[in-house]
Write a structure and sequence with these properties.
single chain; 5-stranded mixed β-sheet; about 550 residues; 19 helices; globular
């Protein structure tokens, strides 16, 4: 079966009059410099099979001829296919080792025209950096700028950088360094022959505006607020990254209201857009954008949600389908590392996890990357009402255990919320991890009462255990409601301790809305009265009810 139309990875060439060898080499190079693909000699553009010329029917000769006329040599697989008339199929691998050219020096790649049809076009030198960075062979952000100097750094931006390290819990050891040593430690400069030259990262983070416009003219950002078809705000920024991020945050902050959700004993504050998720999304856009391409990082608020988009597609090995499972690696490694050490980016490189967690914690619609293309990464975080039952379930469990649920556990809850009674196989397909991993997580979630298993084996299903799940916080709330009079603090604590295995200082703080020191004093008083006895000591001491 031959394909019936051309695509980005399929090319038809007529060979009735013997296609010139140069055209074959150019088609092979274009495939190698894009995603690889199959070249069919003997098929018209319309898909009509007319057959390969006899001069191209020796597959061994064709393969060797192509390898000898491409630099570096491209190893193709050639075969004769077709039932009625012979067609030469040349399978071209994607080049992961760099950019390929014909022996005559032509460099081409494939792209889609506006009407969706593919074409082979010249790859210009300014596009080389993009291709190499996509393949993770070039870190554009680490390039030294030999026509620049440290005089192009803005002292005010250096101070902003230091404040950011303090504010965002960055690497505090950097604060004790002299400015020059700080620049070296973060890779903002490279030393050559005793002279310090700023890197692209240095100019982007603390460069003067004039220096940015001269040395990294592609850097820019935009903040937009859209209401229906009206543009309420449309600001463009050409500023150092740290200053730009501050302006974007301030614009988002006033348009990101919190809502209070009563969860039993305590209140849960839920912003329209999770603040950590927003920070990671914005930082990721600057960290992973392609600075060899013109274009802006765009942050836009609309009636439907928040969009954060940046020039440059996903790097090699990352796609929409494996965003949450691919090993973390970026396009601008030096810039990403500097942002991590400053404290702005997730130190593990898993900022994408934070973005999804921000929606999963409250049962809100998930972030959407489906508008991304080979030229742009576009994240959309939709507005949406929180799912009270999911938010309450997760908040109670995290409060009980004292630690957050894993991302995979949150993803499982999200699938079960929409598809109750799901099998292990279904969950593995939805979340894109192995069935063995799913089973291990489900066993743990079943043990703590988050989910319940129905049946067993491969046909067994799982559902969220909303009604049966209860935490100690529920009991705290019951006691607090029954006795809120401050004159009965001791009785309330004793009653709670009597109905549970133990009581801790944090339990008392939640039970009575008192400070840590007040809770400690109350507990010690009850120990003195002989109503409680300590089970262990230290900051996390627990007390058992023993009566009089």
């Amino acid at each position: 079966m031959l394909p019936n139309k051309e695509t980005l990875t399929i090319e038809f060439k007529s060979d009735q009059k013997k296609l010139p060898d140069a055209d074959v080499f150019e088609a092979v190079v274009a495939f190698a410099n894009t995603e690889g693909g199959d070249l069919y000699l003997g098929v018209e553009d319309s898909g009509k099979i007319t057959g390969v010329h006899e001069a191209h029917q020796n597959v061994t000769t064709v393969s060797a001829f192509i390898a000898n006329n491409t630099i570096p040599p491209v190893s193709v697989r050639a075969e004769i296919v077709g039932d009625t008339k012979p067609v030469l199929k040349i399978s071209v691998p994607k080049s992961f080792g760099g950019i390929v050219a014909t022996a005559s020096g032509k460099v081409l790649h494939r792209r889609l025209k506006a009407n969706g049809e593919p074409e082979n076009v010249a790859m210009y030198p300014y596009e080389f950096a993009t291709r190499l960075s996509d393949l993770r062979l070039l870190d554009y952000s680490a390039m030294p700028l030999f026509q620049s100097s440290v005089k192009d750094f803005d002292p005010l931006e250096t101070e902003r950088l230091k404040r950011s390290i303090s504010s965002f819990s960055g690497d505090k050891t950097l604060l004790g360094l002299a400015d020059e040593d700080l620049y070296k430690a973060l890779g903002l400069v490279r030393e050559q022959n005793g002279v310090l030259y700023p890197t692209v990262t240095g100019i982007l983070l603390i460069g003067k505006v004039e220096a940015i416009q001269r040395f990294v003219p592609t850097h820019a950002a935009a903040f937009q607020v859209l209401e229906g078809t009206e543009v309420r705000r449309n600001d463009d920024y050409v500023l150092p990254i740290l200053s730009t991020i501050e302006k974007l945050y301030s614009g988002l902050e006033v348009r990101n209201p919190d809502r209070e959700l009563d969860i039993g004993f305590f209140r849960l504050s839920i912003p329209e857009f999770d603040k950590r998720a927003v920070r990671e999304a914005v930082v990721n856009a600057f960290s992973h954008r392609d600075y060899a391409k013109s274009g802006r990082v765009r942050v836009a608020l609309s009636d439907e949600g928040l969009t954060v988009a940046n020039p440059g597609g996903f790097v090699e090995g990352v796609s929409i389908n494996n965003l949450l499972t691919a090993e973390p690696h970026g396009r601008n490694l030096l810039l990403a590392d500097a942002l991590k050490r400053i404290g702005l980016a997730e130190r593990t490189g898993r900022g994408i996890d934070r973005i999804f967690e921000g929606s999963l914690l409250y049962g809100k619609p998930l972030p959407d990357y489906s508008a991304s293309t080979s030229a742009t990464v576009s994240l959309f975080i939709p507005r949406g009402e929180p799912d009270r039952r999911i938010a309450e379930l997760i908040a109670k469990e995290q409060n009980r255990s004292g630690r957050p649920l894993s991302l995979n556990a949150l993803l499982i809850l999200n699938v079960l919320k929409n598809s109750p009674k799901s099998t292990v196989k279904r969950l593995a397909e939805e979340i894109n991890i192995t069935e063995n991993t799913i089973k291990v997580i489900l066993d743990s979630m079943t043990a703590i009462g988050l989910v319940e298993e129905y049946g067993s084996g491969r046909t067994g299903t799982y559902a969220i255990r909303f009604k049966a799940y209860a935490t100690k916080t529920d009991k705290i709330e019951d006691v607090r409601r029954a006795d809120g009079d401050k004159t009965k603090y001791h009785e309330s604590i004793a009653e709670f301790a009597k109905s549970n295995d133990f009581i801790s200082r944090s339990d008392v703080m939640q039970l009575l809305h008192v400070s840590a020191s007040q809770a400690y004093i109350l507990l010690k008083a009850l120990v003195t009265r002989g109503l409680l006895e300590p089970v262990n000591k230290g900051r996390y001491a627990k007390y058992r009810y023993v009566g009089q």
